[in-house]
Design brief:
Length: 420
Amino acid sequence: MDSLLIKGGVPLHGDVTISGAKNSVLPIMAATLLTSEPCVIRRVPDLSDVSFMAKILTSLGAEVKLADGELRVRAKKIKPVGDYDLIRKMRGSICILGPLLGRLGHAQVSLPGGCVIGTRPIDLHLKGMRDLSATVTVDSGYVHVKAKRLKGADIFLGGRSGPTVLGTGNVMMAAVLADGVTVIESAACEPEVVDLANFLTKMGAQISGAGSPTITITGVKALHGAEHEVIPDRIEAATFAIAAAATDGEITIHGARPDHLSAVIDKLREANVSVERNGTTMKVRRNGRLKPVDITTLPYSGFPTDAQAQMMVLMTLTQGLSIISERIFESRFMHVSELARLGAEISIEGPSAIVKGGRKLSGAPIMASDLRASAALVIAGMAASGSTQVNRIYHLDRGYEKIDEKLRKLGARIKRVEET
Ligand code: EPZ
Protein backbone atom coordinates (compact mmCIF):
# COMPACT_ATOMS: atom_id res chain seq x y z
CA MET A 1 0.00 0.00 0.00
CA ASP A 2 1.32 3.46 -0.93
CA SER A 3 2.20 6.11 1.60
CA LEU A 4 3.01 9.80 1.52
CA LEU A 5 6.28 11.14 2.88
CA ILE A 6 5.94 14.74 4.06
CA LYS A 7 8.58 17.20 5.25
CA GLY A 8 6.63 19.72 7.30
CA GLY A 9 7.04 23.40 8.06
CA VAL A 10 6.58 24.74 4.52
CA PRO A 11 3.82 27.37 4.04
CA LEU A 12 1.72 26.66 0.92
CA HIS A 13 1.81 29.35 -1.76
CA GLY A 14 0.32 29.64 -5.24
CA ASP A 15 -2.75 28.56 -7.18
CA VAL A 16 -4.83 25.37 -7.18
CA THR A 17 -7.84 24.38 -9.31
CA ILE A 18 -10.67 22.35 -7.81
CA SER A 19 -11.80 19.11 -9.49
CA GLY A 20 -15.35 17.86 -10.01
CA ALA A 21 -17.23 16.70 -6.91
CA LYS A 22 -16.95 13.00 -6.01
CA ASN A 23 -20.26 13.06 -4.13
CA SER A 24 -22.00 14.56 -7.13
CA VAL A 25 -20.50 12.45 -9.91
CA LEU A 26 -21.27 9.09 -8.24
CA PRO A 27 -25.08 9.49 -8.14
CA ILE A 28 -25.02 11.22 -11.55
CA MET A 29 -23.19 8.19 -13.00
CA ALA A 30 -25.93 6.00 -11.49
CA ALA A 31 -28.61 8.24 -13.04
CA THR A 32 -27.33 7.43 -16.56
CA LEU A 33 -28.93 3.98 -16.02
CA LEU A 34 -32.35 5.65 -16.31
CA THR A 35 -32.15 6.01 -20.10
CA SER A 36 -31.10 3.84 -23.03
CA GLU A 37 -29.71 6.93 -24.76
CA PRO A 38 -26.09 8.15 -24.50
CA CYS A 39 -25.06 10.57 -21.74
CA VAL A 40 -21.92 12.72 -21.46
CA ILE A 41 -20.63 13.89 -18.05
CA ARG A 42 -17.81 16.43 -17.84
CA ARG A 43 -15.41 17.57 -15.12
CA VAL A 44 -15.30 13.97 -13.87
CA PRO A 45 -12.50 13.67 -11.29
CA ASP A 46 -9.84 10.98 -11.70
CA LEU A 47 -10.65 9.04 -8.50
CA SER A 48 -10.66 5.36 -7.60
CA ASP A 49 -14.32 5.66 -6.51
CA VAL A 50 -15.20 6.93 -10.00
CA SER A 51 -13.40 4.10 -11.78
CA PHE A 52 -15.12 1.73 -9.38
CA MET A 53 -18.55 3.11 -10.26
CA ALA A 54 -17.62 2.85 -13.97
CA LYS A 55 -16.86 -0.86 -13.41
CA ILE A 56 -20.23 -1.29 -11.70
CA LEU A 57 -22.09 0.33 -14.62
CA THR A 58 -20.18 -1.92 -17.02
CA SER A 59 -21.07 -4.99 -14.92
CA LEU A 60 -24.73 -3.98 -15.32
CA GLY A 61 -24.35 -3.99 -19.11
CA ALA A 62 -23.72 -0.30 -19.86
CA GLU A 63 -21.06 0.88 -22.32
CA VAL A 64 -18.74 3.19 -20.40
CA LYS A 65 -15.86 5.31 -21.72
CA LEU A 66 -13.91 7.48 -19.26
CA ALA A 67 -11.02 9.62 -20.51
CA ASP A 68 -9.57 13.04 -19.62
CA GLY A 69 -12.36 13.98 -17.27
CA GLU A 70 -15.13 13.11 -19.71
CA LEU A 71 -17.45 10.14 -19.16
CA ARG A 72 -19.59 8.72 -21.95
CA VAL A 73 -22.23 6.17 -20.86
CA ARG A 74 -24.84 4.33 -22.87
CA ALA A 75 -27.03 2.00 -20.79
CA LYS A 76 -28.83 0.51 -23.78
CA LYS A 77 -29.66 -2.87 -22.27
CA ILE A 78 -28.96 -3.38 -18.56
CA LYS A 79 -29.34 -6.13 -15.98
CA PRO A 80 -31.03 -5.67 -12.56
CA VAL A 81 -28.18 -7.39 -10.71
CA GLY A 82 -24.83 -5.82 -10.00
CA ASP A 83 -21.49 -7.47 -9.24
CA TYR A 84 -21.78 -8.43 -5.55
CA ASP A 85 -18.13 -7.87 -4.69
CA LEU A 86 -17.78 -4.61 -6.57
CA ILE A 87 -20.92 -3.12 -4.98
CA ARG A 88 -20.11 -4.37 -1.48
CA LYS A 89 -16.75 -2.57 -1.56
CA MET A 90 -18.03 0.94 -2.19
CA ARG A 91 -20.87 2.38 -0.14
CA GLY A 92 -21.71 5.02 -2.72
CA SER A 93 -22.79 2.23 -5.12
CA ILE A 94 -26.09 1.94 -3.22
CA CYS A 95 -27.31 4.76 -5.43
CA ILE A 96 -27.78 2.36 -8.37
CA LEU A 97 -30.81 0.93 -6.55
CA GLY A 98 -33.19 3.77 -7.42
CA PRO A 99 -32.38 4.01 -11.14
CA LEU A 100 -32.46 0.23 -11.63
CA LEU A 101 -35.85 0.04 -9.90
CA GLY A 102 -37.12 3.03 -11.86
CA ARG A 103 -35.96 1.72 -15.26
CA LEU A 104 -36.44 -2.06 -14.89
CA GLY A 105 -38.99 -2.46 -12.09
CA HIS A 106 -36.58 -4.56 -10.06
CA ALA A 107 -33.05 -4.51 -8.71
CA GLN A 108 -30.77 -6.64 -6.62
CA VAL A 109 -27.74 -5.01 -5.04
CA SER A 110 -25.44 -6.17 -2.28
CA LEU A 111 -25.90 -4.50 1.07
CA PRO A 112 -23.22 -1.79 1.23
CA GLY A 113 -20.63 -2.32 3.93
CA GLY A 114 -20.32 0.03 6.85
CA CYS A 115 -17.04 1.79 7.26
CA VAL A 116 -14.88 3.23 10.01
CA ILE A 117 -17.06 6.33 10.39
CA GLY A 118 -20.24 4.44 11.16
CA THR A 119 -22.65 1.59 10.45
CA ARG A 120 -24.03 3.49 7.46
CA PRO A 121 -27.58 2.00 7.45
CA ILE A 122 -29.85 2.23 4.39
CA ASP A 123 -33.23 1.96 6.19
CA LEU A 124 -34.34 5.34 4.82
CA HIS A 125 -33.44 4.37 1.24
CA LEU A 126 -35.58 1.22 1.60
CA LYS A 127 -38.42 3.11 3.31
CA GLY A 128 -38.55 5.40 0.28
CA MET A 129 -38.68 2.46 -2.14
CA ARG A 130 -41.51 0.84 -0.12
CA ASP A 131 -43.44 4.13 -0.07
CA LEU A 132 -43.21 4.10 -3.89
CA SER A 133 -44.98 0.66 -3.78
CA ALA A 134 -41.91 -1.51 -4.24
CA THR A 135 -41.53 -4.72 -2.25
CA VAL A 136 -38.21 -4.83 -0.44
CA THR A 137 -36.55 -7.97 0.88
CA VAL A 138 -33.08 -8.45 2.30
CA ASP A 139 -31.47 -11.87 2.22
CA SER A 140 -27.98 -13.40 2.02
CA GLY A 141 -26.35 -9.98 1.84
CA TYR A 142 -28.52 -8.74 -1.01
CA VAL A 143 -31.32 -6.14 -1.14
CA HIS A 144 -34.07 -7.15 -3.59
CA VAL A 145 -36.55 -4.45 -4.65
CA LYS A 146 -39.43 -5.12 -7.06
CA ALA A 147 -42.46 -3.22 -8.31
CA LYS A 148 -44.96 -3.81 -11.15
CA ARG A 149 -45.46 -0.08 -11.33
CA LEU A 150 -43.93 2.51 -9.02
CA LYS A 151 -46.54 4.89 -7.68
CA GLY A 152 -45.81 8.46 -6.59
CA ALA A 153 -46.18 9.04 -2.83
CA ASP A 154 -45.58 11.50 0.01
CA ILE A 155 -42.33 10.31 1.61
CA PHE A 156 -40.78 11.53 4.87
CA LEU A 157 -37.03 10.78 4.64
CA GLY A 158 -35.79 12.24 7.94
CA GLY A 159 -33.73 9.89 10.08
CA ARG A 160 -32.25 10.01 13.57
CA SER A 161 -29.32 12.07 12.26
CA GLY A 162 -31.41 14.24 9.95
CA PRO A 163 -31.77 13.86 6.16
CA THR A 164 -29.91 11.33 4.00
CA VAL A 165 -27.93 12.61 1.00
CA LEU A 166 -27.68 9.42 -1.05
CA GLY A 167 -31.11 8.32 0.20
CA THR A 168 -32.64 11.50 -1.22
CA GLY A 169 -30.86 10.89 -4.53
CA ASN A 170 -31.93 7.23 -4.64
CA VAL A 171 -35.60 8.01 -4.01
CA MET A 172 -35.54 10.89 -6.50
CA MET A 173 -34.11 8.56 -9.19
CA ALA A 174 -36.77 5.91 -8.49
CA ALA A 175 -39.58 8.49 -8.57
CA VAL A 176 -38.77 10.20 -11.89
CA LEU A 177 -40.42 7.35 -13.90
CA ALA A 178 -43.14 6.48 -11.34
CA ASP A 179 -46.87 7.06 -11.98
CA GLY A 180 -47.98 10.34 -10.43
CA VAL A 181 -46.43 12.84 -8.06
CA THR A 182 -43.87 12.15 -5.32
CA VAL A 183 -43.16 14.66 -2.54
CA ILE A 184 -40.03 14.02 -0.49
CA GLU A 185 -40.15 15.74 2.91
CA SER A 186 -36.99 16.24 4.98
CA ALA A 187 -34.96 15.85 1.78
CA ALA A 188 -31.21 16.51 1.95
CA CYS A 189 -30.33 20.01 0.69
CA GLU A 190 -26.68 19.39 -0.23
CA PRO A 191 -25.42 20.97 -3.51
CA GLU A 192 -24.72 17.43 -4.77
CA VAL A 193 -28.46 16.66 -4.52
CA VAL A 194 -29.20 19.82 -6.54
CA ASP A 195 -26.58 18.81 -9.13
CA LEU A 196 -28.22 15.38 -9.51
CA ALA A 197 -31.67 16.99 -9.84
CA ASN A 198 -30.31 19.35 -12.52
CA PHE A 199 -28.90 16.39 -14.49
CA LEU A 200 -32.19 14.45 -14.18
CA THR A 201 -34.10 17.55 -15.36
CA LYS A 202 -31.82 17.76 -18.43
CA MET A 203 -32.79 14.11 -19.06
CA GLY A 204 -36.47 15.16 -19.11
CA ALA A 205 -37.45 14.57 -15.48
CA GLN A 206 -39.89 16.97 -13.79
CA ILE A 207 -38.40 18.01 -10.44
CA SER A 208 -38.89 21.11 -8.29
CA GLY A 209 -37.61 22.13 -4.88
CA ALA A 210 -34.16 20.47 -5.04
CA GLY A 211 -31.94 22.22 -2.48
CA SER A 212 -34.88 22.68 -0.13
CA PRO A 213 -36.26 20.16 2.40
CA THR A 214 -39.26 19.48 0.12
CA ILE A 215 -38.65 18.05 -3.36
CA THR A 216 -41.57 17.38 -5.74
CA ILE A 217 -41.15 14.91 -8.61
CA THR A 218 -43.83 14.38 -11.27
CA GLY A 219 -43.27 11.03 -12.98
CA VAL A 220 -42.75 10.96 -16.77
CA LYS A 221 -42.90 8.09 -19.25
CA ALA A 222 -39.22 7.98 -20.22
CA LEU A 223 -35.97 9.94 -19.93
CA HIS A 224 -33.56 10.79 -22.76
CA GLY A 225 -29.77 11.24 -22.88
CA ALA A 226 -28.18 14.47 -21.65
CA GLU A 227 -24.85 16.24 -21.19
CA HIS A 228 -23.78 17.73 -17.87
CA GLU A 229 -20.79 19.31 -16.17
CA VAL A 230 -20.36 18.26 -12.51
CA ILE A 231 -20.10 20.96 -9.83
CA PRO A 232 -16.70 21.55 -8.21
CA ASP A 233 -15.87 19.59 -5.06
CA ARG A 234 -16.67 21.82 -2.07
CA ILE A 235 -14.87 19.48 0.34
CA GLU A 236 -11.69 19.53 -1.74
CA ALA A 237 -11.88 23.35 -1.74
CA ALA A 238 -12.41 23.35 2.04
CA THR A 239 -9.46 21.00 2.47
CA PHE A 240 -7.08 23.26 0.51
CA ALA A 241 -8.32 26.39 2.29
CA ILE A 242 -7.71 24.80 5.69
CA ALA A 243 -4.29 23.54 4.53
CA ALA A 244 -3.28 27.08 3.56
CA ALA A 245 -4.25 28.36 7.01
CA ALA A 246 -2.63 25.42 8.80
CA THR A 247 0.73 25.95 7.06
CA ASP A 248 0.52 29.77 7.45
CA GLY A 249 0.69 30.18 3.68
CA GLU A 250 -1.39 32.03 1.10
CA ILE A 251 -3.15 30.32 -1.81
CA THR A 252 -5.72 31.15 -4.45
CA ILE A 253 -8.30 28.47 -5.11
CA HIS A 254 -9.76 28.49 -8.65
CA GLY A 255 -12.86 26.87 -10.15
CA ALA A 256 -14.66 26.64 -6.80
CA ARG A 257 -18.21 27.45 -5.70
CA PRO A 258 -17.64 29.57 -2.55
CA ASP A 259 -21.44 29.78 -2.20
CA HIS A 260 -21.38 26.04 -1.38
CA LEU A 261 -18.90 26.70 1.44
CA SER A 262 -20.51 29.45 3.52
CA ALA A 263 -20.33 27.53 6.81
CA VAL A 264 -16.66 26.66 6.30
CA ILE A 265 -15.74 30.20 5.23
CA ASP A 266 -17.64 31.59 8.24
CA LYS A 267 -15.71 29.36 10.66
CA LEU A 268 -12.36 30.11 9.00
CA ARG A 269 -13.03 33.86 9.31
CA GLU A 270 -14.03 33.38 12.97
CA ALA A 271 -10.66 31.62 13.43
CA ASN A 272 -8.95 34.74 12.02
CA VAL A 273 -8.31 33.34 8.57
CA SER A 274 -8.89 35.76 5.70
CA VAL A 275 -11.02 34.32 2.86
CA GLU A 276 -11.51 36.69 -0.07
CA ARG A 277 -14.26 35.47 -2.41
CA ASN A 278 -14.39 36.61 -6.00
CA GLY A 279 -16.69 34.61 -8.30
CA THR A 280 -15.19 31.11 -8.51
CA THR A 281 -11.92 32.02 -6.76
CA MET A 282 -11.07 32.17 -3.07
CA LYS A 283 -7.87 33.71 -1.70
CA VAL A 284 -6.96 32.24 1.70
CA ARG A 285 -4.33 33.25 4.27
CA ARG A 286 -4.07 33.81 8.01
CA ASN A 287 -5.05 37.23 9.27
CA GLY A 288 -2.68 37.30 12.24
CA ARG A 289 -2.90 34.95 15.22
CA LEU A 290 -5.36 32.05 14.86
CA LYS A 291 -8.35 32.00 17.23
CA PRO A 292 -10.03 28.85 18.62
CA VAL A 293 -13.58 28.15 17.34
CA ASP A 294 -16.29 25.66 18.30
CA ILE A 295 -17.76 23.54 15.50
CA THR A 296 -20.83 21.31 15.26
CA THR A 297 -21.32 19.31 12.07
CA LEU A 298 -24.83 19.57 10.64
CA PRO A 299 -26.75 18.78 7.48
CA TYR A 300 -26.28 21.39 4.69
CA SER A 301 -26.00 24.35 4.92
CA GLY A 302 -24.48 23.71 8.35
CA PHE A 303 -20.79 22.89 8.82
CA PRO A 304 -20.07 19.77 6.69
CA THR A 305 -19.03 16.58 8.49
CA ASP A 306 -16.60 15.93 5.60
CA ALA A 307 -14.51 18.95 6.67
CA GLN A 308 -14.55 18.18 10.42
CA ALA A 309 -11.25 16.31 10.61
CA GLN A 310 -9.41 18.96 8.57
CA MET A 311 -10.72 21.76 10.79
CA MET A 312 -9.65 19.83 13.88
CA VAL A 313 -6.05 19.93 12.65
CA LEU A 314 -6.24 23.72 12.33
CA MET A 315 -7.54 23.93 15.89
CA THR A 316 -4.63 21.85 17.23
CA LEU A 317 -2.37 24.64 15.98
CA THR A 318 -4.46 27.37 17.60
CA GLN A 319 -3.75 28.61 21.15
CA GLY A 320 -6.81 27.84 23.32
CA LEU A 321 -9.71 25.41 23.62
CA SER A 322 -12.00 24.35 20.76
CA ILE A 323 -14.94 21.97 20.97
CA ILE A 324 -15.75 19.98 17.84
CA SER A 325 -19.04 18.08 17.93
CA GLU A 326 -19.85 15.43 15.29
CA ARG A 327 -23.62 15.17 14.86
CA ILE A 328 -23.82 13.25 11.58
CA PHE A 329 -21.79 10.06 12.10
CA GLU A 330 -21.38 7.98 15.23
CA SER A 331 -17.61 7.47 15.05
CA ARG A 332 -15.84 10.04 12.98
CA PHE A 333 -12.90 10.76 15.32
CA MET A 334 -10.49 8.08 14.03
CA HIS A 335 -7.99 10.83 13.21
CA VAL A 336 -7.74 11.89 16.88
CA SER A 337 -5.44 9.07 17.96
CA GLU A 338 -3.19 9.65 14.95
CA LEU A 339 -3.02 13.40 15.62
CA ALA A 340 -2.03 12.61 19.21
CA ARG A 341 1.04 10.80 17.80
CA LEU A 342 2.09 14.17 16.34
CA GLY A 343 1.71 15.79 19.76
CA ALA A 344 -1.86 17.13 19.55
CA GLU A 345 -3.84 17.31 22.81
CA ILE A 346 -7.43 16.20 22.13
CA SER A 347 -9.89 14.47 24.47
CA ILE A 348 -13.16 12.89 23.37
CA GLU A 349 -16.34 13.38 25.41
CA GLY A 350 -19.19 11.50 23.66
CA PRO A 351 -19.97 13.22 20.34
CA SER A 352 -17.46 16.01 21.05
CA ALA A 353 -13.70 16.35 20.78
CA ILE A 354 -12.08 18.95 23.05
CA VAL A 355 -8.96 20.34 21.39
CA LYS A 356 -6.37 21.97 23.60
CA GLY A 357 -4.53 23.79 20.84
CA GLY A 358 -1.26 25.67 20.56
CA ARG A 359 1.40 22.98 20.91
CA LYS A 360 3.84 22.55 18.03
CA LEU A 361 3.18 19.32 16.14
CA SER A 362 6.16 17.11 15.35
CA GLY A 363 6.29 14.57 12.56
CA ALA A 364 5.84 10.78 13.02
CA PRO A 365 4.57 7.79 11.03
CA ILE A 366 0.73 7.81 11.10
CA MET A 367 -2.07 5.72 9.63
CA ALA A 368 -4.92 6.93 7.43
CA SER A 369 -8.31 5.44 8.32
CA ASP A 370 -10.94 7.05 6.14
CA LEU A 371 -11.03 9.49 3.26
CA ARG A 372 -11.35 12.79 5.10
CA ALA A 373 -9.24 11.73 8.10
CA SER A 374 -6.44 10.95 5.62
CA ALA A 375 -6.64 14.49 4.24
CA ALA A 376 -6.49 15.84 7.79
CA LEU A 377 -3.35 13.80 8.51
CA VAL A 378 -1.66 15.17 5.38
CA ILE A 379 -2.46 18.72 6.54
CA ALA A 380 -1.08 17.89 9.99
CA GLY A 381 2.11 16.48 8.44
CA MET A 382 2.61 19.65 6.40
CA ALA A 383 2.08 21.83 9.50
CA ALA A 384 4.30 19.69 11.78
CA SER A 385 8.06 20.05 12.07
CA GLY A 386 10.16 17.15 10.79
CA SER A 387 9.00 14.24 8.64
CA THR A 388 5.64 12.48 8.65
CA GLN A 389 4.77 9.31 6.79
CA VAL A 390 1.03 8.84 6.16
CA ASN A 391 0.37 5.17 5.44
CA ARG A 392 -2.59 3.52 3.63
CA ILE A 393 -3.26 6.51 1.42
CA TYR A 394 -5.52 4.46 -0.86
CA HIS A 395 -8.22 6.09 1.29
CA LEU A 396 -7.04 9.46 -0.01
CA ASP A 397 -7.05 8.40 -3.66
CA ARG A 398 -10.76 7.54 -3.33
CA GLY A 399 -11.75 11.19 -3.01
CA TYR A 400 -8.93 13.58 -3.90
CA GLU A 401 -7.68 13.88 -7.47
CA LYS A 402 -3.86 13.94 -7.62
CA ILE A 403 -3.68 15.58 -4.17
CA ASP A 404 0.09 15.07 -3.78
CA GLU A 405 0.72 16.64 -7.20
CA LYS A 406 -1.52 19.61 -6.38
CA LEU A 407 0.18 20.10 -3.00
CA ARG A 408 3.68 19.87 -4.54
CA LYS A 409 2.68 22.64 -6.96
CA LEU A 410 1.84 24.72 -3.87
CA GLY A 411 5.33 24.14 -2.51
CA ALA A 412 4.68 21.23 -0.18
CA ARG A 413 7.58 18.80 0.27
CA ILE A 414 5.52 15.66 -0.25
CA LYS A 415 6.20 12.50 -2.18
CA ARG A 416 4.36 9.27 -2.82
CA VAL A 417 6.23 6.16 -1.78
CA GLU A 418 5.00 3.10 -3.63
CA GLU A 419 5.08 0.04 -1.43
CA THR A 420 7.32 -2.57 -3.05
C1 EPZ B 1 -23.02 11.20 1.78
O1 EPZ B 1 -23.04 9.94 2.39
C2 EPZ B 1 -21.56 11.43 1.38
N1 EPZ B 1 -21.12 10.37 0.48
C3 EPZ B 1 -20.67 11.43 2.63
O2 EPZ B 1 -19.35 11.75 2.21
C4 EPZ B 1 -21.18 12.52 3.57
O3 EPZ B 1 -20.39 12.51 4.74
C5 EPZ B 1 -22.64 12.25 3.93
O4 EPZ B 1 -23.42 12.23 2.71
C6 EPZ B 1 -23.22 13.32 4.83
O5 EPZ B 1 -23.10 14.58 4.23
C7 EPZ B 1 -21.53 10.39 -0.82
O6 EPZ B 1 -22.29 11.26 -1.24
C8 EPZ B 1 -21.00 9.31 -1.70
P1 EPZ B 1 -26.23 10.15 4.69
P2 EPZ B 1 -24.47 9.24 2.70
O7 EPZ B 1 -27.16 9.13 4.18
O8 EPZ B 1 -25.50 9.72 1.77
C9 EPZ B 1 -27.80 8.17 8.65
C10 EPZ B 1 -17.04 11.49 2.02
O9 EPZ B 1 -16.11 11.55 2.82
N2 EPZ B 1 -28.62 7.34 7.76
O10 EPZ B 1 -26.52 11.60 4.41
O11 EPZ B 1 -24.24 7.79 2.84
C11 EPZ B 1 -26.32 7.87 8.50
O12 EPZ B 1 -25.95 6.77 9.32
C12 EPZ B 1 -18.31 10.78 2.40
O13 EPZ B 1 -17.04 11.99 0.86
C13 EPZ B 1 -29.61 6.53 8.31
O14 EPZ B 1 -29.80 6.49 9.52
O15 EPZ B 1 -24.77 9.84 4.15
C14 EPZ B 1 -25.70 9.16 8.97
O16 EPZ B 1 -25.65 9.16 10.39
C15 EPZ B 1 -18.26 10.22 3.82
N3 EPZ B 1 -30.36 5.76 7.47
C16 EPZ B 1 -26.69 10.23 8.49
O17 EPZ B 1 -27.93 9.54 8.27
C17 EPZ B 1 -30.19 5.78 6.11
O18 EPZ B 1 -30.93 5.07 5.39
C18 EPZ B 1 -26.28 10.92 7.20
O19 EPZ B 1 -26.02 9.92 6.25
C19 EPZ B 1 -29.19 6.62 5.57
C20 EPZ B 1 -28.42 7.39 6.41
